[in-house]
Amino acid sequence: MASQTEENYLKALYSLSVGKMEVNISELSAALNVSNPTVNSMVKNLKSKGLVKYEKYKPISLTEKGRKAAALIVRKHRLTEMFLVEKMGFGWEEVHEIAEQLEHVNSSALFERMDELMDHPLVDPHGSPIPDRQGNISESAYEPLSKFSSGRKVKLAALGHSSTEFLKFLNSRELSLGTEIEIKSIETYDGSMVLSYQNHASETFTKAVCESLLVERVG
Amino acid sequence: MASQTEENYLKALYSLSVGKMEVNISELSAALNVSNPTVNSMVKNLKSKGLVKYEKYKPISLTEKGRKAAALIVRKHRLTEMFLVEKMGFGWEEVHEIAEQLEHVNSSALFERMDELMDHPLVDPHGSPIPDRQGNISESAYEPLSKFSSGRKVKLAALGHSSTEFLKFLNSRELSLGTEIEIKSIETYDGSMVLSYQNHASETFTKAVCESLLVERVG
DNA sequence: CTAATATGTTAGAGTCTTCTAACAAATGTT
DNA sequence: AACATTTGTTAGAAGACTCTAACATATTAG
């Protein structure tokens, strides 16, 4: 069983390797807020446990064993987030910090019960897919809103990231998952988009925001 | 904020000092499964934080600050146990291990939400009182069944301890909190009691068991 | 292609929690 | 009271995770 610290390294490696497959020492230390030497020695430790592939001065990657271990932690994290929102009435901006702690709890019974009580949800409150019990995860096919052009109608399906600030911002604009959005116009100068949805006839969002709004086509 | 380890020492001190007020180094090390020297140094550490009173070769006691800190951990533990039983469908024999981990989670929001969702329960699934937000706990006025005499009718209100084995034993006899019990007879030789309750006309329990069944008078 | 910069590594140390071995104090027994 | 036993303490060390300072290797820019 990996320690809580080791689990956090695996999880960070997992999210940093989305798409990329390989991760720097420095990226990891930035993500975990520890120094490079600390990461260096922990990576050696994880290597000795067969959880990462690593050679001096080369980038790090998860082994299959490490990838699965990480996915199972992500599963616990996302099931918890969904449970807190669905069954306990928390807002989607409140659950990350709590799930960050609960994800290390050692009790498959607890998480499987959450899973059952929610009828096996496929995604967390931010639209990120929940890995299954075997650690398999379905890659989401959603695209950033910024890729689409004027006139297009889409539905908000997930978020590129889910920092508390971003979630509070979306709350303030009354934008939530499942909302149907129409692109009214795009500012060519800075890529900002004017959108229409629900009772918001015209809201402007920066390009950065639109890159983090993952959507699917409608109609 | 106390570390998880420190919290476990406080909690152990708290339960060992029920009634007694003072605790030995050896009792603590037995309860926590660590060596005497380990306890000795941790107790010095807790003393330096103002959580315990302690002098060389003397027994240990919690300060008011320590007592409150411990009670708040017990509050989190018992709220969690009750939540797992009431809202997640676990059996009373399954929840201790999970609560043992969840009690260290740092999130008053989580535990206050549990409290609200259950409408501020007063006791945990084993009948032990839940301390309030200020760390105050109502001493239970229940007495062990073994104190009563033949013919007496009582109601099972709480348990003296709640080890998994004991709980499974009670499950096997279909005995749960709230059950009304009549003492049919008492064996003078070994103090075992013959009880009648619900659809169990005659069940014999050892004195040791009856000392852990806390009851209140009925009728 | 060298020099400057960025990135990674090693060495040595500190904190927290734990241990064992050896010693000291308190308690119980005849 | 004197001895034996139990209980508590000190000293020294180890493992996990972290740091800073100093050094080594890679990468980037002129």
Automatic annotation (TrEMBL), chains A, B:
<comment type="similarity">
    <text>Belongs to the DtxR/MntR family.</text>
</comment>
<feature type="domain" description="HTH dtxR-type">
    <location>
        <begin position="1"/>
        <end position="63"/>
    </location>
</feature>
<dbReference type="GO" id="GO:0046983">
    <property type="term" value="F:protein dimerization activity"/>
</dbReference>
<dbReference type="InterPro" id="IPR036421">
    <property type="entry name" value="Fe_dep_repressor_sf"/>
</dbReference>
<comment type="function">
    <text>In the presence of manganese, represses expression of mntH and mntS. Up-regulates expression of mntP.</text>
</comment>
<keyword id="KW-0805">Transcription regulation</keyword>
<keyword id="KW-0238">DNA-binding</keyword>
<dbReference type="InterPro" id="IPR050536">
    <property type="entry name" value="DtxR_MntR_Metal-Reg"/>
</dbReference>
<dbReference type="Pfam" id="PF02742">
    <property type="entry name" value="Fe_dep_repr_C"/>
</dbReference>
<dbReference type="GO" id="GO:0003677">
    <property type="term" value="F:DNA binding"/>
</dbReference>
<dbReference type="Pfam" id="PF01325">
    <property type="entry name" value="Fe_dep_repress"/>
</dbReference>
<dbReference type="GO" id="GO:0046914">
    <property type="term" value="F:transition metal ion binding"/>
</dbReference>
<dbReference type="InterPro" id="IPR036390">
    <property type="entry name" value="WH_DNA-bd_sf"/>
</dbReference>
<dbReference type="InterPro" id="IPR038157">
    <property type="entry name" value="FeoA_core_dom"/>
</dbReference>
<protein>
    <recommendedName>
        <fullName>Transcriptional regulator MntR</fullName>
    </recommendedName>
</protein>
<keyword id="KW-0804">Transcription</keyword>
<dbReference type="InterPro" id="IPR001367">
    <property type="entry name" value="Fe_dep_repressor"/>
</dbReference>
<dbReference type="InterPro" id="IPR022689">
    <property type="entry name" value="Iron_dep_repressor"/>
</dbReference>
<dbReference type="InterPro" id="IPR022687">
    <property type="entry name" value="HTH_DTXR"/>
</dbReference>
<dbReference type="GO" id="GO:0003700">
    <property type="term" value="F:DNA-binding transcription factor activity"/>
</dbReference>
<dbReference type="InterPro" id="IPR036388">
    <property type="entry name" value="WH-like_DNA-bd_sf"/>
</dbReference>
